[in-house]
Amino acid sequence: MTVHMRLLLGLLVFGTIASAQIIFDTDSGAFADDGAALTMLLRSPRRKDVQGITVVSGNVWARSGAGYMSRNVRLLGLPKLPVLIGTEEPLVHTVAMVAKEKPLETDGAFSQPLPTEHPPHGGIDYIIRSIDAAPGKITILAIGPLTNIAVALRMRPDIARKIAGIVIMGGNVHVPGNASKAAEFNFWFDPEAAQVVLRSEIPNKVLFALDVCNNTQFTRQIFDKVVAVKTPITALYREEFGNGYPGFLKNPNVQGYLWDELAATYLIDPSMTTTTETLFLDVDSTFGASYGAVKPLDRDLAPAATPVRVVLNMEFPRVYDLYIKALTAQ
Q1: Contact between 164 and 79 (Cβ < 8 Å)
Q2: Which of 63, 74, 212, 328 has the least CB density, counted as fewest CB within 10 Å?
Q3: Is residue 246 reached through a cis peptide bond, with omega within 30 degrees of 0 on the bond before it?
Q4: Are 39 and 327 in contact (CB under 8 A)?
Q5: How far is it, in rounded angstroms, from Cα 218 to Cα 32?
Q6: Residue 117 confidence (pLDDT) above 80
C-alpha cells in the first residue's frame, strides 16, 4: 500500500476529526513530550490548523506551563499564536489528598509552589468561543489533565455536539497505571474532569492511553539523532530528555516512552494508527486506590455518551521517522 493510499484510508476511517482546526490543550513543562508534540504539529502540513493553545495544570502549574508554551511558539516562528491559561487547579483533587495517595512516579504540579506570575487567562472562554464560531470544525488535542475541557462542557453542555472531535493522551485501559497502580497520570491528576469528558456527547473521541504508549521505544539512538542537529529547539530537547526524563545523558542505556507525541502524530497522519477498539468508558472518581482508573461505562449513568476509540497499536517506525524529522527541521 502506498503512502498516499494509507493516508487516504486514515482520513476515510477517522473522518472530519483529521481535517478540522485544532485547539492544543496542554500541561506543558519546559519542553518534554508536550513541546515535542507541538513542534511536530507546527512543522507539519497542519501548522495553519493550530488555532491556539490553552494551558492546564498537570506536569506543572498552568502559570508556569503558559510561560513555557509562549517561549516555544516564539522559537517555532508563531509569536502571535494565542497561549491562554484555562483552569489552574483540578476540580476536586488537592495536595492534601495526594499526601495520602503517595504516587508511584510523580505528583506533578502538586509538589511545586504556585508561581507568582500572571500570564494571560481566558482559556475556557477561548475554547467555547472557538467552538461556537466554527461548529463541527474544531478538534481538541488534549494532552494534559482534562480540566479545561470539562469546565467548558459544564459551562456550556451544548457545545459537546459542536466539537468535531477530541484526541486525548491519558488513561490506561488494559495495562497498569503510572501515577498509581490503577491510574495514568493525566486522569489521576483530575479524575472528575476525565469522567466528564468520557461521559460527554463529543461525537469523536480518540484515546491514546498507556496501552499504546507502553509499546513505544524511545531510545538513545533516537535522542542522538535529534541532538546531533543544533537548533534552539534541539537545545531544549537535549536538556529535557538528557538530564530530565528519561535521562539519556546520565544513563545511555535507559529507555523511555512516547506519549503526547503519538496523539500529535494521529492528527498529522491518522494512517499510522493500525489497531483500535471502540468502547464506552468511564473514570473512577471515588477517592481511594482506584482513583482515576478507567473502567467500563454504566450506560444508565450517561445514556447520551458517545463511545471512545482506543488506539492500541501504530506503525512505530513511521512514527519515529516523523518525530525525528520534525524535531530536527531547520
Answers
A1: no
A2: 74
A3: yes
A4: yes
A5: 13
A6: no
Report the C-alpha gap between 39 and 62 in whole angstroms.
Answer: 19
3 state SS of 94: coil
- Considering the segment(s) 3-216+257-328 as one domain, its CATH architecture is Alpha-Beta Complex (3.90)
Digit-coded pLDDT (tens) for 43-72: 999 999 999 999 999 999 999 999 999 999
Alpha helices of the chain — where are they, by DSSP H?
3-14, 32-42, 62-75, 95-101, 123-133, 147-155, 185-189, 191-198, 210-213, 220-227, 232-243, 260-268, 316-328
Q: Which long-range contacts (CB under 8 A, 24 or more apart) does 271-275 make?
A: 271/6, 271/7, 271/8, 271/9, 271/10, 271/11, 272/6, 272/10, 272/314, 272/315, 272/318, 272/319, 272/322, 273/10, 273/14, 273/311, 273/313, 273/314, 274/313, 274/314, 274/315, 275/311, 275/312, 275/313
| Cell numbers representing residue 38 in the block | 507541538
Q: With 0-12 CB in 10 A as exposed, 13-18 as middle and 19+ as buried, what is 179?
A: buried
> Which run of H or of E encompasses 282?
strand 281-283
Extract the C-alpha cell encoding 235.
537545545
C-alpha distances in Å from residue 177, one per residue of 104, 172, 288:
9, 6, 14
Q: What are phi and psi of 140, to 5 degrees?
A: -100, 125
Instruction: In whole angstroms, give the CA distance from residue 136 to residue 160.
Output: 10
Domain limits, the chain: 3-216+257-328
Buried b (16+ CB within 10 A) or exposed e, 49-59: bbbbbbbbbbb
Q: What is the pTM of this model?
A: 0.93
- Cell (9 digits) for 170: 491519558
Q: Cα(258)–Cα(260) distance, rounded to whole angstroms?
A: 7
pLDDT at 9 (0 to 100) = 42
For the stretch 293-320, pLDDT in tens is 999 999 999 999 999 999 999 999 999 9
Of the pLDDT bands very low, low, confident and very high (cuts 50, 70, 90), residue 10 is very low
